[in-house]
Amino acid sequence: MAVASAQEFFGERLPKKIAERPQIIEKINAVYRFVIEGQGGGSWTVDLTQPGGKVTAGGTQGDCIITVAAPDFLAIMNGQLNAQMAFMTGKLKVAGDIAQALKLQYIFA
Question: What pTM was estimated for this model as a whole?
Fold first, then answer.
């Protein structure tokens, strides 16, 4: 089923994926901040340093900050745009620990 919005992804789908994969959360052990720009966007903090993980709207800090336009975010989540290609073409920006960004594939897959 396609992701319709960033709010749906961070509000429903990602918390469910985190709950289904507690062993992966322990291995990641990082705080992510997602900044989804444009209409339908927003900012979310994904804290994978605590048991069970936590996704909250807003936030200002993270070990890794990922910034992407809302349409590109949806394209990545729906398999229409490869995240690595989006990064290489400047559509997806990563600040902070890039090694932590690579670990996101374990939850987003």
Answer: 0.92
